[in-house]
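>> Question from a student workshop board

For tomorrow's exercise we were told to take the sequence and the ligand below, predict the bound structure, and bring the output to class. My setup keeps failing. Could a helper post the expected result so I can at least see what it should look like? The ligand is magnesium ion.
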Amino acid sequence: MASRENPPATSEHGRKDKIMSALSTSIDTINCVKDAIPNEIAKGLLSTFSGILSAVKNTIRNKEDFEELARQCYEISFLVWRATTATPNKALSLHVTRAIDDLKKSKAGVASRTLSVTIDKEKIASWQRDLSRFLQIFNTELNILTHVKLEEIIAMFEQFRLQAETKTTAQGALPPSKPSLFVGRDNLVHEVSGLLAEFRHVALLGTGGIGKSCLAKAVLNEPDIVTKFGAQRYFIRYDDMDASQVSYEVFLDRIGGILGLALGAVDPLSVISTHLSSAPSLLILDNAETFLDAAQDKTRIADAVDSLGALASTVVLLTSRSRALPSNILWNVIAVPALEPVAAREAFTAVYHKPIKKIDVIDSLLQSLDCHPLSINLLAHAARENDWSYKELLDTWNKRQTDLLHTVSRSES
Ligand SMILES: Nc1ncnc2c1ncn2[C@@H]1O[C@H](COP(=O)(O)OP(=O)(O)OP(=O)(O)O)[C@@H](O)[C@H]1O
Ligand SMILES: [Mg+2]
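>> Workshop helper replied:
Here is what the output should look like for this input. Compare the format with yours to find the bug.
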């Protein structure tokens, strides 16, 4: 793929290597532009350029005589890209279309078919003149159209290329679906979704097992959120590591993995930021206490969260057991409460599956669990797996209470 380097080589030393690399850069850039633009006439012109330069690279002996020509083709490809992307219908002006047509009919246009092992300088010079004339027409046209300089166009193209590349290589994980059993949180789901839709950052705080991650997954799948953020909804989990294992690199690698990005060592945060800036994005950082309490790089990680949250296109939803949050983001802090008694009963019966005769007794049992969702779930599973009758359940509960929860908890982990 093209680098930012300009193709011309100036040093005499290693000139052959430089011209080879300049040719490769030009060919890559031209091919990339060719794939990106919708205009068939311009595509044809770029194919010719890339054909000429490939032939020069592979067969011509006096490659160094083509340095200027390679530079011209390289510049023209940017101008073509800008000219097609600057107009709303991506059409080239009549003036430019005619110039392309002329150029294709000119000597440069037939060059790829007439190339032999060496080309005399006069012939190359005549092609260069054709291209110069064309560049002049194009530049004038573009100046009128966009008022941007070539260097700016190159920088814009580089940004475009990066985005296109990350889009095509993105194979990030699909976002998790809504939990199959999820009760009693309608108001919270509504509240959190509303905040996120307005790009207001949210921190869901609460003790372990209170239901923060389930709530985040439910929000992630709300129709309004799906419509607003589409494929740029990312759920990044940190619940399978502890604070001693997280570093700045690990923190960003997780995000890069879910976004489907290949993060280089140079500036991974900016690769992630560029991707998130390409469209409205929802970034869910689940079990954030793991990285906010990280043994290494704690401050650097918090700064990275701050900088992701500062992106205009990105809203962050974070779940955490800890109250210590990155300080430069204006968080809407929501303390996730225990389930309401009715929802707690619903959560229990959905797993237990047996008829419950004395609802008030079960209710008080669930109260003794503080209507804590994870505890309810564990108890209901234990009751179902052991096929306890309603009475057995109460007897066992009265006898073994916390033991029971711990046993199931261990077997589930
Ligand atoms: N709204 C709900 N309805 C039914 N069950 C729920 C609900 N919320 C949570 N649970 C149950 O509680 C369990 C723990 O929930 P969750 O993983 O969301 O907790 P958490 O607050 O993220 O905990 P941790 O801090 O350990 O990550 C879930 O696996 C599920 O069984
Ligand atoms: Mg969680």
